Every structure is written in C-alpha cells, then in structure tokens.
Amino acid sequence: MNNKESFNKDAENLQKGDTQSAERIFDNFSGPIHSFLMARVRNRETAQDITQEVFLKVIKNIDQFDKETGNFTAWIWQIVRNTLVDFFRKKRPSYLEDLPDEGGNIIDESTYSDSDAKLRDIMKIIDTFPEEDQELFQMHFVADMSYSDIAQATGKSEPALRVAIHRLKKKIQPKL
Amino acid sequence: MLKYIKEQLNILKLKKQLRAYHKIDEAFMRSTKQSFMELAKLRSSSLGSIKTYHSPVWKYSTAVMVVLVFMTSGVAVFAEKNDVPINNPLYPLKRLSEKVQLVVSSPEKKLQIHETLVERRLKDIAVLKIAEAVKEESRQEDKTVASAPEIKKAEVILLKEIIASKSLKSPKITPTANQKRIKKLDSDFQKEAQSVLNQADKLSIERARRVMICKGIISNINSGSASTSSRFREQIKARCDEISKDR
Questions:
Q1: Pick from A48, A26, A23: which is nearest to A37 by CA?
Q2: For residue range B9-20, what is the model confidence (pLDDT) as tens digits?
Q3: Residue A123 and residue A129: Cα distance in Å, rounded?
Q4: Residue of A14, A48, A112, A172 to mutate for B, most B C-beta atoms under 10 A
Q5: Closest CB from B18, B24, B41 relative to A31
Q6: Given B15, B18, B41, which is nearest A19 (Cβ)?
Q7: Taking CA atoms, what residue in B is nearest to A43?
Q8: Ramachandran region, residue B204 (left: φ > 0; alpha: ψ -120 to 50; beta: rest)
C-alpha cells in the first residue's frame, strides 16, 4: 500500500469514526502544514490559528472526501490553501500592518545574526516570485515535503516539480 | 563538480536555517493534537446513531421490511377472512392469522374463534380426505390400464400422462404426507374442541349455551370428517354429560 492509498484508507476509517486513523493523519500532516503556514503568513500566532482551523475543517468535512475518486493528501492541502486564501482575503490589511519587518514575530530579535539577515534577504527574493513558485518553495524548503507529496498536494507531475524546484534553486543561488 | 557540491551544501544549509527559522512550537502542536483527537472522539461517539439513521442501506432495508410486514399481514388477513382451503398456498398464512387472533382477542371472542376453528379443522380434514380419495382412484386406474392386454404400450403411456396431469390439479401431496397432515389436523381439531370447552368453563357461561356447544362438537365428531380416537369421543361425551347434569 503506497502513501496515497494508506492516507485514503485512514481518511475512510476516520469517516467511520476511527480515532487511531485521526491520530495518524495529524502526525503526518500537522508538521508540514504548520511550517508551510508559518512561512506563508510569517506570523506564529496567525499560523497557529490557521493550523487549528485547518484540522477543524478536516474533521467537519471528512464525510465529503471520496476515497474512490480523491486523494487525501491533495484534499487536505486544498483545505490548507482555501483557508489561507480566506485568511488573506479577510485579514490582509491589518496583517501587513502587524508585520512591518516580515517574520519578526517568528524569531527573537535579540538572537538576530548574520545568517538570519541572509535568510531574510533570501525571503525577500522569494517574495518576488510568482505565488505558485512561492508555494512550491515553502512546501519543499520549509515544510520539507518530498516531491511525491508535493505532486499529490499540487496535482503536478514529479518531473515537472523537479524542474521547477531546480529553477528556484538557481534563482536563490547567488544569495547563498 | 566542486561547484555543484558547494551549491548542494548551500541548499542543505538553507533548508536547515529555514526549518530553524520556522521552528514548530511543540506545546502548541500537543494542544492542537489533543483538540483534534477530542473532536475525532466526539465525532466517533456521535457517529453510531447518526450513521445508522442516515445509512441508505439501513433506510432501504427498513422500508423493505415494513412493506414486507404489511404485505404479509395483509395477505394473512385476506387468507383468514376468505377461509382459504388447505391446498391453497396461502393456507399457512391463514393458520398464522388464526393464532394471532387467539392471542389478541378477548376471552369472550376467543370462545367464538375456537368454535370457528373446530369447524375449520373439520373442513380441512374433509378436503384432504377427498384429495386422498382422488389419488387412490388415480392409482387404481393406473393399475387397471397397465394390466389391460389389448391396449398398446403407447396408449398406456398416454393414459398415464393424462392421469398424472389430473393428479397435478389435485393437491400436490404424497399419500404418506397427506395422511400425516390428516393426523396432525385431527390432533388440532381435538385441541380446538378441548379449548372450546375449557374456554366455556373459564368464562362460566350459562349452562344452556355450554350444552349447545357440547352438542355441536359431538355432532362434528359424528359427522365422520375427523378420525378422532374413540378415547377422545368418550372424553368429550363424559364432559358433555357433566355439563348437562350440572345445575
């Protein structure tokens, strides 16, 4: 049973009320999703709120997942994206005011170092990327997702993703 | 080559820095997991009743069951009201309906039902005896045809077929099974007759009516449909005598 089938099975069991499947789903997806959200919103509290909202939606909407036609990894990441879109639509103006230094909320300013400054430069470059590339970068570099998982989450082929990520690497290489 | 290795190392370093930069708060993850698991458990505990209620399989099977119960009870009432004969496929439903009636009726009504059932069992026995006689006749004809030397073999087969088709129209009961059923019906008749008298005693109805009931049963026994034992006849007769003498 591959990852896709395994998570589809867990989702099916969760639909039937199996709590062990719920635990497996949380353990597998919570880390990458939370990291991805932190990278996207650059605010720890906001990322935590959205993470909680995502998992609440998973429980609320699990009956809508069709294991025959769907892919649970793609389904849960679609929830993440939709929740993020809702967040940006509602909160963007105040969110930008709250974060003038982009990411200052995530790390302690007293511990800033040269490498942090370098990192922020790289993140500024990332911000200039198209939305799709930013998402790809955060999934691969921050959430540490495999090509296979990203392919399932985004619905793209693995070879196409490898090429896209290689291009991203080339773009940030001068800053490294 | 060296440049490539250097690039890869830089990428790894960047990944490490990014992960450290976006370090996950373990306490938050624990509490989120706890909330998520509580929701899952809540869902799991409430799921049993909701699922059962909404399950299409359950809904359809319930609907089918309800329809079947209605149809069966409807057909049973029809069979009972029309007093279908013993060779009718609906006969078992008629018997079932009779039993249900006995359970749900008042004591007064029960007496009437037992009286009706006595007559019905006698009728059933009579039908079976006729069927048995027809069968016997067919067997006799068969023997006669087979033994006639002047009739050709083909004609014998043809006649056999005609007799067989005739016997198909009569109840599809083998002689042995038929006899067994007559015996069973006779036993049922005896039980019903006893029940009538017991019910009459229980209700303490007036003597004149009890005498009438007794005469009716004896008349039924004497009609010859039932092959009741002489011991049973004597029992009923003695009981009826007691009722007659009772003042």
A1: A48
A2: 888 888 888 877
A3: 10
A4: A48
A5: B24
A6: B41
A7: B22
A8: left
Task: Tell me which residue of B194, B204, B195 sits closest to B233, measured CA to CA.
Answer: B194
Helix axes A19-41, A3-15, angle to 10 degrees: 110
Per-residue confidence (pLDDT) for residue A51, from 0 to 100:
94
Model confidence pLDDT, tens digit, residues B132-163: 788 778 878 777 766 655 556 666 666 666 66
This complex has an ipTM of: 0.79
Whether pTM exceeds 0.90? no
Domain spans, chain A = 1-95, 113-176
The whole-angstrom distance between B57's CA and the closest CA on chain A is 15
For the cut 70, the answer to whether the pLDDT of residue A128 exceeds it is yes
Which residue stretches of chain A are H helix?
Answer: 3-15, 19-41, 44-61, 72-98, 114-127, 131-137, 147-154, 158-172
- Grade residue A83 by pLDDT with cuts at 50, 70 and 90: very high
Which residue in chain B has the smallest CA separation from A57? B36
- Tell if the CB–CB gap between B32 and A103 is shorter than 8 Å: no
Tell the residue number behind the tokens 């059933």, with chain if given: B124
Name the pLDDT band for A23 (thresholds 50, 70, 90): very high
Mean pLDDT of B225-234: 73
Contact criterion met (CB below 8 Å) for B113 and B99:
no
Taking the alpha carbons at both ends of chain B, their separation in whole angstroms is 128
Q: Which secondary-structure segment (H or E) carries B224?
A: none
- Is residue B62 less than 8 Å (CB to CB) from chain A? no
CATH 1.10.10 applies to domain A113-176: yes
Question: Is B93:B76 a contact under the CB 8 Å cutoff?
Answer: yes
Q: How many CB atoms lie within 10 A of CB B79?
A: 21
Token look-up 């009722």 returns: B243
Q: Which fold has domain A1-95?
A: Rna Polymerase Sigma Factor; Chain: A (1.10.1740)
State the amino acid at position A6 in one-letter form. Answer: S
CA distance B24 to chain A (A): 7
Extract the tokens encoding B40. Answer: 């899952």
Q: DSSP string covering B88-109, please?
A: STTHHHHHHHHHHHHHHS-HHH
